Amino acid sequence: MKEFRTHDGEVFVINLLPCPFCSADPEMKMSGNYHHKRRRITVRCRKCRIERSDASISNNNLWLVRVAEKNWNARSTVPAEVVDIVRTWERGLMQHAEAMQAIAALAKHGEGEG
To answer: 0.70 exceeded by the pTM?
Structure first.
């Protein structure tokens, strides 16, 4: 948990989960304030720079901070079967890459024998 301060000086305690892609800590930034027609909060990963934004015209800062926090922390559940398929596909790609490297090494070695 950490504090987030809006441009209007309000302070909120927020709890943002790590980035779903790289596990780094995210940061929350606000653009606009009560005097602008549109206020936006962006939660952004400091490492891989993935981000999502939420905006409001008529709701207060508390609402906007909580919506941004909730949406960033939302995680979908992937069925185990899908995870297995992706892992099998990744293994196949790695084997293909290793085979291509071996072929390239053999071709390079064969060029030097002439």
So the answer is: no
